[in-house]
Design goal:
about 290 residues; five-stranded mixed β-sheet; single chain; TIM Barrel; globular; alpha/beta
């Protein structure tokens, strides 16, 4: 499963110290152009070729859209749906979910869900917390707000922003049970003994040599028959503005290899010709699981 977290370059957590929410409206927005770049890429990569249709079928992804973006670019959200992809929620203001008060988070989740549903005209079932900032309390509020699944659990413990929840195998693919009426689709990392190697996407995908990354994906697919990873539209935009005053490590993590993202993704998809790329909601339905749990 390929998932795209639809947010603009100035909304990432790494830049919060330099670009506050109050200044977002004055920043150059590039999210519409960059998201269309991914949509066109998926259309081409999943289309018929000279040898016939792709064995794994068309490429379908889940786009976790920030409400702030959806409010300003409703046409983009409709385009995502029209091209056969799933629209899900990434919250509204890109605040870390597990650091919000219950009231703030509930408002954020309701607001995001409502604006997306008003645009696409159908239920929005899924959610991904900004920076994977999930916890048990967040799951409870997700349930209260009418979401059916979450895809925020990242088992890598090396990033302090990432949250933690209790999950247990469901017996069907990588879908997990939580203590709430919410299914969990965790990010796919690579485990070596008791060590977790972050291979879920984002900067890790850009930094790991693509042939190594492909071997990791193949290994996980062989073990679990599914792999879920993520990217952001700004990760394919080397022309985005360079933010000043950001620590060197964060600059490195954000900008390194962004000119190679789509070529690496193209290589990976080509090597996974027989693999189906399906949306998160589609995967849950494929596993014959009832959203109501």
């Amino acid at each position: 499963m390929l998932t795209i977290d639809v947010e603009d370059w100035f909304q990432v957590e790494n830049f919060k110290g330099s670009i506050p929410l109050s200044s977002w409206s004055s920043c150059e927005s590039r999210v519409e152009k960059n998201t269309h770049l991914f949509l066109d890429f998926l259309d081409i990569a999943g289309s018929e070729t000279g040898n016939g249709k792709r064995p794994g079928g068309p490429l379908r992804a889940t786009f976790f859209v920030l409400g702030w973006v959806a409010e300003r670019f409703p046409g983009l959200v409709r385009e995502i749906q029209a091209r056969g992809h799933e629209v899900a929620s990434h919250g509204f203001h890109h605040n870390l979910s597990n650091r919000c008060s219950a009231e703030e988070l509930k408002k954020d989740l309701w607001q995001s869900k409502k604006i997306l549903e008003d645009i696409v005209g159908c239920a929005v079932e899924g959610y991904r917390a900004p920076s994977f900032s999930i916890n048990e309390e967040v799951l409870g509020i997700l349930e209260e707000c009418g979401y059916s699944y979450d895809s925020s659990f990242n088992s890598f413990a090396g990033n302090k922003r990432y949250g933690n929840i209790r999950i247990s195998p469901n017996g069907k693919g990588i879908v997990c049970k939580t203590i709430r009426n919410i299914y969990e689709l965790p990010i796919s990392n690579f485990q070596i003994g008791r060590y977790i190697v972050p291979t879920g996407g984002g900067a890790y995908f850009r930094l790991i040599p693509v042939r190594v990354f492909e071997k990791i994906v193949q290994s996980v697919l062989k073990l679990k028959n599914a792999y879920l990873f993520y990217l952001h539209p700004w990760e394919a935009d080397p022309g985005q503005p360079k933010v000043k005053g950001v620590p060197a490590f964060l600059r490195f993590r954000h900008y390194t290899n962004i000119s190679m993202t789509l070529s690496k993704l193209s290589f990976l998809i080509d090597r996974l010709k027989d693999v189906s790329f399906i949306s998160c909601g589609g995967y849950i339905r494929q596993m014959q699981l009832d959203y109501s749990n």
